Amino acid sequence: MEAFSDGVIAIIITIMVLELKVPEHGQDLSSLIPLAPFFLSYIMSFVYVGIYWNNHHHMHYLVSSVNGKALWANLFLLFWLSLIPFGTEWMAANHFGQVPVAVYGFILLMCGISYTLLAHILARHCGRQSELAQALGKDWKAKLSTVVYVIAIITALWLPVLACVLYAAVAFIWFMPDRRIEKKVLNDENYNKE
């Protein structure tokens, strides 16, 4: 499951970078100015896909096996992640217009919901006392992210730039993987060195 997800995520990033077009005319830096919306959208989407890839790896570090439900939940996550290039391109092509920014936020919201669903299915599969279940705890990051996404989607219909700031704030919350999982990874790596 992890290797397949890595491949899909690599393709998603490749598709996004291929959407960055070289200016047809001009050899100076000013010829890049029209590409600014595309580059800014690409940066935000690249960070998001990177966050999902990073957290996906950390989560799977604590999982020794998966079941059919987890496989389907993982595909559900990959489906929404695969729509990020579409949302990125539409948002950039329309210079962060209201509806494209709202749709981009909806895609991010669904990525978050599907990731949370996958995490909880894996935690249930591993057991209540598993390290993954304990690391997830009350999952305040997922709950807070969902609320911020909904607020940002509504905000996008009036102030799309503010909505993008809220999307960036959620990315900031998730930038560092869960400390309890990170601590487990580091402890195991130190143990294996001894």
Offer a few descriptive terms:
194 residues, 77% helix, mainly alpha
Can you give the mean pLDDT?
90
Which range does the strand content fall in?
Answer: under 5%
How would a crystallographer describe the biggest sheet?
none
Percent range of helical residues: over 70%
Quick summary of this structure?
The protein is mainly alpha-helical and 194 residues long. It is 77% helix and 0% strand.
Q: How would you sum up this structure, described in words?
A:
This protein is mostly helical and 194 residues long. Helices cover 77% and strands 0% of the residues. The protein is built from nine helices and no strands. It has helices at residues 2-18, 36-61, 68-82, 84-93, 98-126, 131-136, 140-156, 160-174, 179-193.
Give the secondary structure arrangement, pairings included.
Elements: H1 2-18, H2 36-61, H3 68-82, H4 84-93, H5 98-126, H6 131-136, H7 140-156, H8 160-174, H9 179-193
Helix pairs in contact: 1-2, 1-3, 1-4, 2-4, 3-5, 4-5, 5-7, 5-8, 7-8
